[in-house]
Design a protein that fits this description.
249 residues; mainly beta; Jelly Rolls; ten-stranded antiparallel beta sheet; 2 helices
Length: 249
């Protein structure tokens, strides 16, 4: 059984996320949760407690959001993000290069809820996109939930150490079942950031947790990387602060 820290316990109590954990602690403070409840899905935080959420779906002019190139010193391609206001869907066309669309508002401890689906194209492979929490404004520091075509469902990124130096981390090898559905189907994800802990919930279960996030505040956002993808129900919920020992670079 995993030893739960006070931070993880607070995440469970505040979000309604719970799984019977199986043994397994990876490198870089990674804890892996496995749902052992006879296949019964764990409800999302939004389903468990619908109160206190803020809708952050962009307006048609994308006011309140900023587009950042990847890497940070790169150049932006054509404007590939737009909103279908009738359907209430944010669309990345996937033909404007590699970028991040970041919410300008800075968030600390919070849950980021979103739903997505790729536009399936026959004989095309390699679908690739993601979502972010606690990013720096220029994208040099980033914490990403990675999702592909019926694969991935893990956290990785670049986070500051206690000395303020950027350090790469990835949970890819630790995640055995990322739970992401095939291209063309809607997926639901939540990333909970509380204290130093980032928790990824995908389609009914927690897939992984990262316990060494070195940035206590930052920007949530979405990734465009060459594939058409739709997003809906973008919401955030602020959480009570349980730890103040993260290092701001």
């Amino acid at each position: 059984m995993l030893t739960r820290t006070s931070v993880l316990l607070a995440v469970v109590l505040c979000t309604g996320i719970w799984a019977s954990p199986a043994a397994g602690e990876g490198p870089d403070g990674v804890n892996i949760e496995v749902d052992e409840s006879a296949g019964v899905p764990i409800r999302s935080a939004l389903q468990s407690d619908p109160e206190g959420w803020v809708d952050i779906m962009p307006r048609g002019d994308l006011e309140g959001w900023s587009r950042v190139p990847v890497p940070p010193k790169g150049k932006l391609g054509r404007a590939q993000w737009h909103v279908d206001t009738d359907r209430k869907v944010l669309i990345c066309d996937g033909d404007g290069g590699h970028d991040m669309l970041l919410l300008k508002k800075v968030l600390g401890d919070a849950i980021f809820h979103f739903e997505f689906r790729y536009t399936r194209i026959e004989r095309r492979k390699g679908y690739n996109s993601g979502a972010y929490v606690r990013n720096s404004p220029d994208g040099a520091i980033w914490h990403q939930a990675q999702f592909g075509d019926a694969q991935d469902g893990f956290l990785f990124g670049v986070t500051p150490t206690t000395e303020g130096k950027p350090k790469f981390f990835t949970l890819k090898k630790e995640v055995k079942d990322g739970r992401v559905k095939p291209a063309g189907e809607w997926n639901t994800m939540e990333v909970t950031a509380q204290g130093k802990t980032l928790t990824l919930w995908v389609n009914g279960a927690v897939t992984c947790q990262f316990n060494n996030c070195g940035k206590p505040k930052g920007h949530v956002g979405l990734e465009g990387e060459g594939y058409r993808v739709e997003f809906r129900n973008l919401k955030v919920k602020k959480l009570p602060v349980v730890s103040k020992d993260s290092t701001e670079p």
